Amino acid sequence: MEKSFKDKQNRISTLSQIFKRTNIPSVPKEVPDNIVKKCDECNSTIIYNELIHNLYVCPNCNNHFKISAIERISQLVDAGTFRELYMSATSKNKENFPEYTEKLNKARSETEIKEAVICGACRINGITVAIAVMDSNFMMGSMGQIVGEKITRTIEYATKKKYPLLIVSTSGGARMQEGIISLMQMTKTSSALKRFSDAGGLYISLLTHPTTGGVSASFAMLGDIIIAEPNALIGFAGSRVIEKTINEVLPPNFQRSEFLLEKGFVDIIVNRKDMKKTIHDLIKFHIKK
Known about the structure:
Structural class: alpha/beta
Shape: globular
CATH superfamily: 2-enoyl-CoA Hydratase, Chain A, domain 1
Largest sheet: 8 strands, mixed
Number of strands: 10
CATH topology: 2-enoyl-CoA Hydratase, Chain A, domain 1
Strand content: 15-25%
Number of domains: 1
């Protein structure tokens, strides 16, 4: 138990070095008070310290656990280099949708972040990158007006600065509480990416579990290079909806990373432990000297 506490303290210290502002939480939501966790895939019991050390990947079956945006940034970004952008942008219940305000407040309280995406500039193994990382813990990573706006501004920032762009997606789709405004973000983000591409920018899209709905139908699938984590759910509509629509039984592992790689929708599947190096190597290979 003493070792577990020390490991948590070391983890907190490491995370706190990544972020330059003080009001972003330095402790990932995934670090619990107990000492073990059961894997959803193989049902094995894993000691938390081992899970943390293994980047929240099951050592028995390679199941990649869902992680927060903060934890994701801590794994990908050089310590002390992350500078958050657009941190004051927050969603409001402009349409007076029932219980939306309460859900927003609850999400902010539970995740200690303001919105379902964190955006900024950072270095990845020494290379400066513009980055946007979604968080499925915040209203299932749903994309409303502010999420779309923050991602669009990050794309425009990368265009202006001529930085490579990395977007890490995890989302249940458009935020229904904002109606047509949320769907408009698909066009807005896609248009910004077209301008970024026309300016010669490099966009790497990282798809994590799950990436679905309006996010998968817009910026998530528009990367120059599309990376996916193993066994991530990636698709637009749910499999049951598709089966009922076409009256056919879908193939095994339909909408999983491996299936999409086979069909050419994903360029490469990368294990989490290799992700930072892979992204760095891809950027280094493609950017101008």
